[in-house]
Amino acid sequence: MQPFTMALAPEQLWQAINPLYWTQNGGQIGLVNITLGQTARPDIERTVLDEVGSYGRQIGRIGDALEVLIRHFDTADLPQPERDALAILMGQLADVRKIKARERG
């Protein structure tokens, strides 16, 4: 494939356009990369993600377990801001369930 060329006076200029070389921070490989931060043992983190589940799946299961505990916990003695925090979490967990049900059809 011939490189794209454009005649501009007084010389010809050309530039190869290859998405593999598009970078923002010098180390980016693709168009969208997510940096999850530093970890002392990236090999262990990769293994956990491969064998246990994605961060979303792990957080979802934590949310499911918290919902069980909240349902069996008497919140009457908690201050209102703490009861509100639990109510907000329960609402978000309900929203996640709705989205999952909708997307799974």
Walk me through this protein's architecture.
With 105 residues, this protein is mainly alpha-helical. The chain has 3 helices and 2 strands. It has helices at 42-51, 55-71, 80-104; strands at 5-7, 12-14. A two-stranded antiparallel ribbon has the order 1-2. The radius of gyration is 25 Å and the shape is elongated. The two termini are 44 Å apart.
Topology:
Blueprint: E1 5-7, E2 12-14, H1 42-51, H2 55-71, H3 80-104
Antiparallel strand pairs: 1-2
Helix pairs in contact: 2-3
What are the defining features of this structure?
mainly alpha; two-stranded antiparallel ribbon; 3 helices; elongated; 105 residues
**Strands in their spatial order, largest beta sheet:** 1-2
Query: Quick one: how many beta strands?
Result: 2
Outline the low-pLDDT stretches. none
Percent helix among the residues? 40-55%
Please work out how many helical segments DSSP would assign. Answer: 3
Radius of gyration: 25 Å
Distance between the termini: 44 Å
Q: Which class do the helix and strand fractions yield?
A: mainly alpha
Helix and strand sequence: EEHHH
Proportion of beta-strand residues? 5-15%
Shape: elongated
